[in-house]
Amino acid sequence: MKQYIVRYALGFVVLLVLLGHAARFYELGFINRLDAIIYDTKVRLTMPKGMDDRVVILDIDEKSLGEIGRWPWGRDRVSQLVKKLFDQHGVTILGFDVVFAEPDDSSGLKVLEGLSKGDLKDSAHFQAALKELRPQLDHDGRFAETLRGRPVILGYYLSGRSDGVSSGALPPPVLPEGSFTGRSIPFTVWTNYGGNLAEFQKAALSGGHFNPLVDFDGISRRVPLLAEFKGEYYEALSLAMVRALIGQPKVVPWFPEDRWFSSKSYQGMEAIDLPTARGTLRVPVDENVAALIPYRGYQGSYRYYSIADIMADRIKPGELKGKIALIGTTAPGLLDLRATPVGEAYPGVEIHANLITGMLDGAIKHKPSYVLGAEVVLLLLAGLVMVLLLPLLSPLRATLASIVLLLFILTVNLVFWEYGNLVLPLAAAVLLVLTLYALNMSYGYFVESRTKRQFTELFGQYVPPELVEEMSRNPESYSMEGRKAELTVLFSDIRGFTTISEGLGPDELTHLMNEYLSAMTEVVRRNRGTLDKYIGDAIMAFWGAPVSDAQHARHAVVTAMQMQAALPAVNKTFAAKGWPEIKIGVGVNTGDMTVGDMGSAVRKAYTVMGDAVNLGSRLEGITKQYGVGILVGETARKAIKDIVFREVDRVQVKGKEEPVAIYEPIGLEGEVDKATQEELKLWNQALRHYRAQEWDQAEVALLNLSRLAPGRALYGKYMERIAHLRREPPEPGWKGVWKFETK
Questions:
Q1: C-alpha angle with apex 549: 548 to 555, nearest 5 degrees?
Q2: What is the DSSP string of 454-488?
Q3: Residue 633 CA neighbour count, 13 Å, CB half
Q4: How many Å apart are CA 309 and CA 314, to the nearest integer?
Q5: pTM for this structure?
Q6: pLDDT tens figures, 45-73
Q7: Which residues lie below 8 Å from residue 706, measured CB to CB, with a gap of 6+?
Q8: One domain for residues 189 and 106
Q9: Distance of alpha carbon 738 from its chain centroid, rounded?
Q10: Domain residues for 511?
């Protein structure tokens, strides 16, 4: 692990920097900008599009300004418009995205009242005429009277300018001062306002502000549904209209105090509840008690009607019946065009329409306060996985792991967005994955690749290339120095090779050996063996070094079995070329060996030496004595649990004083058929009789075995031994050990 310390350190630095941003200890502007871009992209990709016919926009457009006159229009005109909308067209509710902040003096009433108090105050005829005309000329009074008793919501604006002056009147607050005592909620706080004339606001059903929140990049993505002014709380125009539609229910702040993760320290207000007789309409809000604008499409997702057409009766009867109507403007000169995720010059009135639709449909995305904790947890888990895992993986696997993790993060984010209406930050997590991936790849290429090249140059001449890559991940763990360890060695040899070589020309023999050795070497490498050397037609390989292998004995025996299994295909190829069939013997032994870089100053080789190695060679040599393809030493046999073996004999090979048991591998447990299992049981009985010198019983068992498997030379070999031992009985204390006098 030491070679990864630098990578770990750099990775944790990246993780801590991004965690600090996510936890809001500080803010990284470029991440906020990227999150905003991602949010806008998701809005555009997932917005439902299509028209919402419930809401219509009555447009003070260029056409209206041209036909009716410049804004503001006389209150008599506006009063006439309101009457037409309710009495003639039957709209359900009307909201104004404009402010009536100044009195209307266009009728001349103010001048006439001045005369009545001046030069003509004594004229009874003038005073009587003025009294009769006043109701007709009082446009503001007529407008107020028109509003009274009709579901009209007036709009006003709030301002945060320190030098601003408030004007007009505000509607009553929806929540009084002190409603959130003991809770620290970061409401949007305004210091002044521009409201409607008091008589209008008093006559209207309600009022709401039309201030969107403009984010750092100038884009309008949210509207504060509740805003604070002098300690009291005022609702947005869209919320006021929805409340009016469903019966003017009280505004009830909702705090998730019943959630498993909530605590006394968690004070986040997550929604506004509007209780009605049919149930509660819940509107989600973010930490600033603002609603994310649920844009349903680009400009034009609602039907626009020019007010000029309404005033001139060019609208079909019944077309506006039952509609939720908003009066606003798309005329550039009236300055109500805003930058949004779905357009750079988006009418402000359509923002309110989108919010009304979102509240009624329950389609407003939610970004509660606890999202902060969710982002920190996600970053921490993803970061720890990448920091700790990537240094251990190859470039390909690191790439695949990074892609999988990135896709997982994106999928989770989109699932919450689409099916849970939950907005989770994404930029920091994406940057984390990409940065850690780039860091590890760059470090691996520029720093570790040089170390690996040096390591490969050192070990590559001794160790198979497929193991060099694994070794190079932790080079300090490997050394060419000699050491003693328990390993497993394998020897294989072609039987009758001298006869085969004499029957072939030099070129044919070369090609035969190349094909044979290639096939057998592939088996060794497939089972993670270290190919030691070729000794003529013999192959020497070992397991457990230089790369540690807890199952070295099993891998060596499996290799021996697979080498024998590969011979039929090799012989088929040879037969097609007119070459002779070959058979091999394989010896496998486990034991303590010395392994290291050994040789002379002229030439060295990474190899193994010791008595256990010599025994492995002897086992290969005596396979032909028993007519078996593989012989395995006793230590190797004891280390393997899932392979079925036949005990062949107890032998004392030349050069060894201690006898050893030798075994033939039959197959993997669960893959040995019932007939073979029965044969093994009978063989074990024969072997017990043989070692007990019960020659008659042993011969009977061997005769039965010979009938079961006529071609098995092992049984004939033991029949010959029994005949010999009858003639020359063994010494007292004999334990069935057969001594070999030759190698």
A1: 145
A2: HHHHHHTTTS-HHHHHHHHTSGGG--SS-EEEEEE
A3: 31
A4: 5
A5: 0.61
A6: 999 988 999 999 999 999 999 999 998 89
A7: 712, 715, 716, 719
A8: yes
A9: 65
A10: 480-672
